[in-house]
Specification:
With 587 residues, the chain is mainly β. Helices cover 9% and strands 44% of the residues. The protein is built from 6 helices and 41 strands. Strands 2, 4, 6, 7, 9, 10, 11 and 13 form an 8-stranded mixed β-sheet that branches. Strands 15, 17, 19, 20, 23, 24, 25 and 27 form an 8-stranded mixed β-sheet that branches. Strands 30, 32, 34, 35, 37, 38, 39 and 41 form an 8-stranded mixed β-sheet that branches. The longest helix has 19 residues. The radius of gyration is 38 Å and the shape is elongated.
């Protein structure tokens, strides 16, 4: 950078030295700034610089000032000018704090062939781009700013606006400057716009993601807040994530909150040192977020029967409803919050035709295997204390004679659980000799897609391909089990959900669906039944607490007497042995 600056300064000094030998010569000629820019927000406008001459031009200097509190000059160029087309050998553009200069010498290097710009009217000798650096509030009148030729001020040494003709310089007053001044009008930006793109999903087991699009011509987006509601009796919001435009810009902060009837997303693009100024560039249809939903109710029908109507649910931007303090939908540009125009969308739950396959997956405790009539006897919750390890097992049924050759499983789970490992030991898949078992676990609650587990099993994956499969079954047979740890911070008496969910990527990049492989086909859309891990209080032992009410008092003595003389039951005999002599008696 230093070398470039020195080179430019050196070139200007040479150019100034060349001009130092020139005197002022004759007839009225002119330089003009041409073009009129009307922009909104932090938009840009292009302007040209023209000259009208009555004699050939050997070189020229342009020095233009502007209001740097209103606009910034982002480029200065002679591309496409008569200087370029006539082979100028020295061109030095320079953008300064409150102005810019262009120095041009047509014949500046050996063999000095005497290049010039022929005389002519309105010849383009340069151009520049000005960008608004102010963001006017909606309703304010436009701000108009101009550009002026300025002598003796800009650059070092200070330059005048001149033409070089016949070895002499022509400047003001012989050179008419700004005879046709140009201006730039800056209006408030159009309101930014947020749109929820309507989407749909299979009502039985599908997940659909509504894209959130941003329209913003005001300038680079520095951050945004989204708050979207839905009918909690129709949909479940399963995940919120940032979109492609936000990812590409390199956002540094996101805050996600998923609620029963809606969700919020807050994003800051440049949140961390060294504060590089990341923004989402102005534009239309910018994909900034995904809100992903599943349907609460199955809309099923049998082939040949009338197709029931789809269920359409509104997805609605809401202000000052969610969060504490309440959040509004805003877009941040130039350090200011813009209230955008809001376009709501819908989520459609599509009817689903019943499959001929009766495959079904379950999860629950290991002893759920072999349960008769599983549809009438759901698995009991898996219980554990906060901080303890539990085992979560997965099962299948398929009573119509289908032999399962493999499966692909996608499971979501409450992030108060940490999945540690998966094993098929003791399962029918282990007994048959599954040749491929692969899984991955995503325990990260802050990556925008929750906590996930994906699994792939193939029975016959290696030569000699003997066609292994697991048999049809009307009772749940074990697929395998996950060892998991309940968070020490999990609320006591709460239940943590574990459920099958489509379209997740676990710790990888590929979206995984729940698929059963039957007769070399991938079967989807079958029923799944999730389970829960319930956090129970840790059992405590207190000697003398014979009635198990967590207190030691006369009521415990009464309980002992009732047991001894009236046959009253007791829960913990050792606790009733108050003096720890191995006996329960009046002592």
């Amino acid at each position: 950078m230093k070398q470039n600056t020195l080179r430019k300064c050196s070139s200007l000094l040479v150019f100034t030295a060349v001009l130092a030998f020139a005197g002022l010569v004759g007839a009225q000629q002119s330089m003009d700034i041409v073009g009129a820019g009307a922009v909104a927000g932090t938009g840009s406008a292009n302007f040209g610089i023209e000259m009208t001459t009555t004699a050939p031009v050997e070189g020229y200097v342009v020095a233009v000032s502007y209001n740097n509190a209103v606009v910034a000059i982002t480029s200065v160029s002679t591309t496409g000018s008569v200087a370029e087309s006539n082979g100028a050998e020295l061109i030095v553009p320079e953008i300064l704090a409150s102005g810019f200069t262009i120095g041009v010498v047509l014949d500046a290097a050996a063999p000095f062939l005497g290049q010039t710009i022929p005389a002519g009217a309105s010849q383009n000798i340069g151009s520049f781009t000005a960008q608004s650096i102010i963001l006017l509030p909606q309703g304010d009148p436009p701000v108009v700013t101009g550009f002026s030729f300025l002598d003796g001020t800009l650059n070092n040494p200070p330059l005048d606006n001149i033409l070089v003709q016949g070895g002499l310089s022509v400047g003001a007053p012989s050179l008419d400057l700004n005879g046709n001044p140009s201006a730039m009008s800056i209006a408030p930006p159009p309101p930014a716009g947020l749109e929820i793109v309507s989407t749909s999903a299979d009502s039985t087991n599908g997940t659909g993601c509504a894209q959130i699009l941003l329209d913003n011509d005001a300038g680079g987006t520095q951050g945004y807040v989204l708050a979207i509601s839905h009918d909690q009796n129709a949909l479940d919001l399963v995940s919120i994530s940032v979109g492609a435009a936000t990812l590409a810009a390199g956002h540094e902060f996101q805050a996600i909150n998923i609620l029963p009837n809606g969700g919020t997303l807050g994003v800051v693009l440049d949140f961390l040192a060294p504060f590089g100024g990341q923004v989402i560039a102005a534009g239309q249809n910018l994909h900034i977020a995904n809100f992903c939903y599943t349907c609460d109710d199955d809309i099923e029908y049998t082939a040949g029967s009338p197709v029931p109507p789809a269920l359409v649910t509104d997805l609605t931007f809401v202000d000052n409803v969610f969060g504490s303090p309440p959040l509004a939908n805003v877009v941040v540009v130039g350090g200011l919050s813009i209230n955008p125009d809001l376009t709501n969308g819908t989520f459609t739950c599509l009817p689903h035709e019943n499959e001929l396959f009766d495959t079904k997956w379950y999860c629950g405790p290991r002893d759920y295997e072999g349960t008769s009539n599983p549809d009438l006897n759901p698995a009991l919750p898996i219980e554990g204390t906060a901080g303890s390890d539990v085992e979560i097992c997965f099962f299948y049924t398929d009573a119509d004679g289908d032999n399962l050759q493999g499966l692909q499983m996608a499971v979501c789970f409450d992030c108060n659980l940490t999945f540690n490992d998966f094993d098929i030991a003791g399962s029918i898949f282990d007994a048959v000799g599954a040749e491929f078992v692969n899984f991955n676990i995503d325990n990260n609650p802050n990556d925008g897609d929750g906590c996930e587990f994906v699994l792939g099993i193939l029975l016959d994956a290696l030569p000699p391909f003997d066609g292994q499969s697991v048999p049809p079954t009307a009772v749940p047979l074990l697929i395998g089990c996950v060892s998991a740890t309940i968070s020490p911070n999990a609320p006591c008496d709460s239940c943590l959900d574990v459920y099958f969910c489509d379209g997740i990527n676990g710790a990888g990049n590929v979206a995984i669906e729940n698929v059963a492989i039957i007769d070399f086909e991938s079967i989807q859309g079958f029923a799944t039944v999730g389970c829960q891990v319930c956090v129970v209080p840790e059992d405590t032992f207190r000697r003398g607490d014979c009635n198990s009410d967590d207190k030691v008092d006369l009521a415990d003595a009464a309980k002992i007497l009732g047991w001894q003389f009236q046959g009253e039951p007791i829960d913990c005999p050792d606790a009733c042995d108050a003096n720890d002599d191995g006996k329960i008696n009046l002592a």
